[in-house]
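@channel anyone free to eyeball this complex?
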Amino acid sequence: MSTATQTTPHTAREGYDRDLRVAVLGVGMMGQDHARRLAQLTKGARLVAVSDVDGARTDAVAAEFGVRALHDPVAAIEDPEVDAVVIATPGFTHEDLVLKALHAGKPTLCEKPLTTSPETSRKVVEAERALGRQLVQVGFMRRFDAEYEQLRSLIASQELGRPLFLHCAHRNATTPPNFSSEMLILDSVVHEVDVARFLLGEEITAITVFKPGRTSHAPEGLQDPQFVLMETESGALVDVEIFVNTTFGYEVRTELVAERGSARIGLGVGLVEHSSAGWGGGIAADFKERFGAAYDAEFQRWVDAVRSGAGIDGPGVWDGYAAAAVCAAGVESLRTGRRVEVDLGARA
Ligand code: ISE
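replying in thread with the prediction:
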């Protein structure tokens, strides 16, 4: 980061030969983390403003980083002193804010979900297409994790032959208050949907959600764990154990089984004890710890892409739309107990 203050007029399409002035919208847990990242770590970026529905929080975070407190997120998007925005507000606000950012021509890094339904995500896809260039990156940070990148390269090299199965485990220690059974799909499995598409390079065509016996540690009424089975265009199967009240830590693992071999990521190093008696030294406490380096890389590559005029370097609005469509089908399957097919329609 640096503190250059040159204000040459420009457009996002031309790129920036000075630091990118970024506003973070939504400074809850994740937004504050991103604000700190931009203020202290990301090169070529300068945090200039923050905005949150909670006015006191906006003021406190703005004071902490010595930046402007903008209480209206739309005003922050339209502010001439703001080049680009990070959206970390609750999911239901994303559609409106992303469309406003597209209208204002401001490069945007939007935390997942892109929007809360396939229909509204498709609207964003169409709006960006009408603009004729990519301006919105979606915050699927696992694509920037070194192990996922390695596994993707291995699959792409075809060294192990055709992928047949991905076995995924996604475990969280506890859930925040009001975490619903649907949120296991919409908030957690959404990452597995994106990494399956990223690793295999194809779309998901159907999803079935099973409801195994509940853990006694889940809050009343929460269906935890769940077991998800996804089918892909090529016939590969992706299964996900999603279990969000393990009590003992954060585990995210993927095993690839291909025609001539298998490979696993997310195991940690050395002896790892998986119990409440201890973490054995290899299990992260939460996703901020497990994916900290991936978030750092995601932000650096996004800022570099925006400054170069490329707009994005990572998952775009189509990826956000595909994830929303698969998750909506997953929620339908959770409710009905049936296998639900996914039809994305023509790629925009
Ligand atoms: C959370 O919102 C995340 O995005 C984490 O990566 C995921 O592991 C967790 O289950 C979600 O609740």
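from a first look: Residues 121 and 321 are 5 Å apart (CA to CA).
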